[in-house]
Write a structure and sequence with these properties.
Elements lengths: L1 E8 L9 H8 L2 E10 L11 H20 L5 E4 L2 H12 L3 E5 L4 H16 L3 E5 L21 H6 L41 H6 L4 H14 L4 H4 L12 H5 L5 H13 L6 H24 L21 H8 L6 H13 L4 H14 L4 H11 L5 H12 L14 H8 L4 H6 L19 H7 L14 H15 L2
Parallel strand pairs: 1-2, 1-4, 2-3, 4-5
Bound molecules: flavin-adenine dinucleotide (FAD).
């Protein structure tokens, strides 16, 4: 029998379908130490933002509870990671360290060093695939090299069989009492001035919460997904993104469960909806593929022409965008939803990102950073791809000249104005016909609704038509 294995939990905060944990269980070790090492400094500017930290606090607590229910517990340590692991190995006499791989460039660099150093000292060190369906380096175009366009990427993968997820362990060996742990509460993940009630109200972080979300989606929304996914006032999507980011559920589990669900459906239309949902999981894979092959993209545009784009420096406009005070209802509703709940609907993310980068011509990295700090699902791969897509400078991006009109987006995807009314109470009494363009509403309609432009709700920060034209002129300067 082997001595002791460390399972290093990172963004794989689950017990089921966890290959690193499974390797420790199957390795016939006398003891297993599950550890989480808090080392935000090692992630530089991409250390978890405020909303992510709140989530992490809850998710670690949930993982610790689940481990305790199996007879184990979570050991929490603080970085530097290499030193924390060394100390734990010394204290426990561990002979093996297992973890699941992540793909953020700074994490890859750190993990490589740790793997080499532990391996050189004779430890058994193994890492596993748990965060993705396909390793980014195993997928390439016919000509060789990475994909830069989603459709052929996903076409090459979507029919591959999905493996069965690994089962949740029934029990785990106890962790010796002499192995000490920091208290999760002492990591300082929760804000001192509490702004996070909305996050706690809306979400249930942790593995159980993730599975409840998936089941609720399959029960209530999956049969309409392809129809409803674009309407922000409708609960038409899965809301799995933060659970996926923290690995409380894995993509293999989701794809597998989706197939099981499909097998039980009698309506042939169910296939179209679930395949659309699965292709969104495909976008997540694609985002990780692009990040792995182009690790500079969180900071630099993939399309290098955009390095010369004449961005505007306008702090005041940026702040008004951040706080939902632009005077464009669809944009302001999205930014307020984000601030209140740590989430924003995908259609609205595209709209606010287009507005920032095109109508305000503010650099996409400023929006990326704000999302990083405020989204509970902030994810280096998906956020980078989303922003570069919206700005027109990324892989398979929307062409720059396709500029979303946020008022038109509202009229199409929030026709009755329910989403705007939910987040902008100042406009609650304005009818659906005028709610997306209050600046064009007749004075009487505004008066009846109690809206006083410039007083109760801001006038638009820019003219949508003029700013669109200016953005196209700016683009003319870099397109060759
Ligand atoms: C500017 C911008 C920034 C974004 N930042 C992030 C981010 O930081 N983190 C994040 O997870 N997603 C991001 N997205 C993608 C997308 O908006 C969210 O994944 C989605 O809204 C999450 O809601 P859901 O789980 O209900 O999605 P569903 O529609 O239920 O999709 C299921 C899952 O597929 C994945 N997915 C869906 N759409 C995309 C996409 N366009 N790109 C990559 N993966 C996708 C997510 O993991 C999601 O949970 C961003 C999009 C834009 C336009």
């Amino acid at each position: 029998m082997n001595k002791l294995a460390i399972v290093w939990f990172r963004r794989d905060l689950r017990l089921s379908d966890n290959p690193a944990l499974r390797a420790a269980i199957d390795g016939d070790f006398e003891a297993i130490v599950p550890v989480f090492i808090h080392a935000p400094d090692e992630l530089g500017q991409w250390a978890p933002g405020g909303a992510q930290r709140v989530w992490l606090h809850e998710s670690l607590t949930a993982l610790d509870d689940s481990l305790k229910a199996l007879g184990s517990r979570l050991i929490v340590r603080c970085g530097p990671t290499d030193e924390a692991l060394d100390r734990l190995i010394e204290e426990s006499g561990a002979t093996a360290v297992f973890w699941n791989r992540l793909y953020d460039p700074q994490i890859i660099a750190r993990d490589k060093k740790i793997k080499k150093s532990l391996g050189d000292r004779g430890l058994q060190v193994e890492s596993f695939k748990a965060h993705l369906l396909y390793e980014p380096w195993t997928v390439e175009t016919k000509q060789g090299g990475p994909y830069k366009v989603f459709t052929p990427y996903w076409k090459s993968l979507r029919d591959r069989p999905i493996v069965n997820p690994l089962p949740r362990p029934a029990s785990l060996p106890a962790v010796w009492s002499r192995i000490e742990s920091e208290a999760i509460a002492d990591l300082g993940l929760l804000p001192q001035v509490r702004w996070d009630e909305g996050i706690h109200e809306r979400w249930t972080p942790g593995e159980d919460g993730a599975h409840e979300r998936l089941e609720a989606f399959l029960r209530d929304a999956a049969t309409h997904y392809d129809r409803d996914r674009d309407y922000p006032a409708v609960a038409g999507t899965s809301y799995l993104s933060p659970h996926l980011h923290w690995g409380e559920i894995g993509p293999v589990q989701i794809m597998h469960r989706a197939e099981e669900w499909l097998a039980d459906q009698s309506d042939p239309a169910a296939r179209k909806h679930i395949e659309r949902f699965q292709s969104e999981i495909g976008w997540r894979e694609f985002a990780h593929h692009v990040l792995f092959h182009f690790p500079e993209t969180p900071e630099k545009p993939l399309d290098r022409r955009f390095e010369a784009f004449p961005w505007a420096e306008d702090m005041e406009a940026l702040e008004r965008w951040q706080h939902g005070r632009t005077g464009i209802p669809m944009v302001d509703a999205g930014m307020r939803e984000l601030w209140a709940t740590g989430y924003m609907h995908n259609r609205v993310r595209m709209t606010v990102a287009s507005f920032l980068t095109k109508n305000l011509r503010i650099q996409w990295q400023a929006g990326e950073r704000w999302f990083w700090d405020t989204l509970v699902d902030a994810d280096l791969a998906n956020n980078t791809m989303g922003w570069q897509w919206a700005a027109g400078c990324g892989a398979d991006a929307a062409p720059f000249f396709r500029i979303f009109n946020p008022a038109r987006q509202g009229e199409r995807f929030d026709a009755e104005g329910d989403y705007v009314r939910r987040w902008i109470p100042e406009l609650a009494n304005l009818d659906g016909k005028h709610i997306h363009q209050p600046w064009a509403a007749p004075a009487q309609a505004l008066e009846d609704a109690g809206v006083r432009p410039g007083e109760t709700y801001p006038r638009p920060i820019v003219d949508l038509k003029a700013s669109r034209r200016e953005a196209l002129e700016a683009f003319d300067q870099i397109k060759k």
